[in-house]
Amino acid sequence: MENAVDAVVIERRGAVAVIRLNQPETMNAISPEVKAGLGAGVPALVDDPAVRCIVITGTGNAFCAGGDLRNMKDRRAPQVMERMHRTYAWVERLVNGRTPVVAAVNGAAAGAGFSLAMLCDLVLAADTASFRAGFPNIGAAPDLGLAYTLPRVIGVQRARELLLTNRRVAADEAVALGIALRAVPAASLMDEAMALATTIATGPSLSLGLTKMLLNEALGPTFPAFLEKEAMAQAVAFGGDQFAEGVRAFLEKRKPDFTAI
């Protein structure tokens, strides 16, 4: 059974729910429609006891190319923070909910797409997938918790390098760094992801949910407190001239020039 809600498709496969970002024409960038689909879908699935594992993937050749820059015209701090808090409503449920989440990264995961993959408990990558911070290229701060999740996965030094240099990480290196659990042939990615999710879904849901809770608590400080600071940082970045230049350069398909600003 498949239910399309604009830019997000949710499919139930027994005790596993698959969330698929479904705007391949924009490489599944997180548009208002994608945000709305995730905002409605994630809490509903996390609250459903019949859903014992969630898989997140993308349609086409990309997992998620990040935020949709065409829809970031209002850059006033209060509006930026309001938008981010609306997004955090489903982000926090994904992380702090007790339902295990698997990312099936089928292609490029950049910017907020990289962040989305890192919000998941386990990451499988197609051998054609790649990861890139993306935020330095548009003069933005990392968001959707990437500065929180990434150093906890790969260590502070390596996270600093990826977040400061915007270097692309191919699938094999992502596995070596610990970003992904393993890389598999693109054609078998969803089969592998579903096999992993099904194994989890047939396990003791109460025990696994409590395990996820304890792992999150062990990371500290609390994720919601971090997101408050992140929202303030992004509001400052969005209001600056360098972000304006980054967006202009993206839309004009040229390299941004931050040195004169």
Summary tags:
10 helices; seven-stranded mixed beta sheet; 2-enoyl-CoA Hydratase, Chain A, domain 1; alpha/beta; 261 residues; four-stranded mixed beta sheet; 48% helix
Would you give an account of this structure?
By secondary structure, the protein is an alpha/beta fold. The protein has one domain: 2-enoyl-CoA Hydratase, Chain A, domain 1 (Alpha-Beta Complex). Helix content is about 50%, strand content about 20%. It contains ten helices and eleven strands. It has helices spanning about 30-45, 75-95, 110-120, 145-155, 155-165, 170-175, 190-200, 205-220, 225-240, 240-250; strands spanning about 1-5, 10-15, 15-20, 55-60, 60-65, 100-105, 110, 120-125, 130, 170, 180-185. The strands form two sheets. A seven-stranded mixed β-sheet has the order 1-2-3-4-6-8-11, sandwiched between helices. Strands 5-7-9-10 form a four-stranded mixed β-sheet. Strand 2 and strand 3 (about 15-20) form a beta hairpin. The chain is globular.
